[in-house]
Design goal:
This protein is of the alpha/beta class. It is built from 13 helices and 11 strands. Bound molecules: 6-O-phosphono-beta-D-fructofuranose.
Length: about 350
């Protein structure tokens, strides 16, 4: 068999561990298999930029962050748009697939990547995909690889802030990644003992946020820590149309939501605020043990789909078991935090404020 492999979109800690899982299983199960690694995601497939991989390429990479074949963002919206030079991306990808006589494409990526994987499936290519993202927002799987490693890093950031916040008696905001969803902030916030957690799924009322801080002050607590998702949104902004909100963000003087929240808290409480943004460190470093296991399982299970010639699916995990989810079902859907789920109720029972 000849298998093409690519990693697309933002990187994360356990892309290599996942590719290793796929490769090891294929090399173990098949006598004759060749893996072609496309460089920098879909770009490599479009422009025939690839490397013939050897078993040794997949050795020693279980603990290595990033991706050994590189990645890039190729927006799904642009996939069917013909370039000014007449370049047809979809046709080019199909051409490379046929020219290299591939039996299947193994695609590792998040939401946009899964949409393009589904497009290629619709175009007749054999596709098997794996759920990568620190955001944990892929529909159809309880967990994505990269998420737990990012939770560890964001939690460490909050832990470090804790000692400084306690010493100085200030209000600290730690802004956490997660794109349009709050999984990473919710988990890191709870793990780091944040007092207030603001996520996009629960629009906040700034007065309630200020009240939560003042309540702590009255109780004699010298500091407060807020874990704020990069996509956190106020109740007023959530009432705007998408277009109006975009225009508001474009005109904003603040570098990110946390600075606006910080300013408004300062005005309401008179307390001193500091903002910390761990940013891309959340995608870096070595995968945590949970991700190493999950990625190895995903890899082996995805390879099994190839051996079964069961194409057109993303591998996922449900209640601890590997599941095959049709790409047609996954593409275009977001898995968001349910504001009425038990974890939110439990967090509130602990006294954490969501500003609602
Ligand atoms: O999807 C992963 C992610 O890290 C998001 O949490 C974040 O919004 C985005 O990627 C950042 O993208 P980029 O690396 O392109 O700046």
């Amino acid at each position: 068999m000849r298998i093409g492999m690519l990693t697309s979109g933002g990187d994360c800690q356990s892309l290599n561990a996942t590719m290793r899982g796929v490769a090891k299983t294929l090399y173990n199960e098949l006598k004759d298999v060749e893996i072609i690694g496309f460089l920098e995601g879909y770009k490599g497939l479009m422009y025939e930029d690839y490397k013939v991989m050897k078993p040794r390429d997949f050795s020693g990479i279980l603990t290595e962050g990033g991706t050994i074949i590189g990645t890039s963002r190729q927006p799904f919206k642009q996939m069917r748009v013909i370039g000014e030079d007449g370049f047809d991306k979809v046709a080019a990808m199909k051409k490379t697939y046929k020219k290299l006589n591939l039996d299947c494409l193994v695609i590792l990526g998040g939401n946009g990547t899964q949409k393009t994987a589904n497009l290629l499936r619709e175009e007749g290519l054999n596709v098997v995909s794996l759920p990568k993202t620190i955001d944990n927002d892929l529909w159809g799987t309880d967990m994505t690889f990269g998420f737990q490693s990012a939770v560890n890093i964001a939690t460490e950031a909050i832990d470090c802030i804790h000692t400084t916040a306690a010493s100085h008696g200030r209000v600290f905001i730690v802004e956490v990644m997660g794109h349009k969803v709050g999984w990473l902030t919710l988990h890191a916030g709870m793990a780091g003992g944040a007092d207030i957690i603001l996520i996009p799924e629960i629009p906040y009322d700034i007065d309630k946020v200020a009240q939560a801080i003042e309540k702590r002050t009255k109780e004699g607590k010298r500091f407060s820590i807020l874990a704020v998702a990069e996509g956190a949104i106020s109740k007023e902004d959530a009432a705007l149309s998408k277009k109006e909100y975009k225009a508001k963000l474009a005109a904003s003087v603040y570098p990110s939501v946390s600075y606006e929240i910080g300013k408004r808290i300062e005005e309401k409480t008179g307390q001193e605020i500091r903002v910390t943004i761990p940013g891309h460190t959340q995608r870096g470093g070595s995968p945590c043990p949970y991700d190493r296991v999950l990625s190895s399982r995903f890899g082996a299970a995805a390879a099994k789909m190839i051996l079964d010639k069961d194409f057109g699916n993303m591998i996922g995990i449900k209640n601890g078991e590997m599941v095959r989810i049709p790409l047609a079902d996954v593409a275009g859907k977001l898995k968001m935090v349910n504001p009425d789920s038990s974890i939110i109720h439990e967090a509130k029972a602990l006294g954490i404020s969501f500003g609602d």
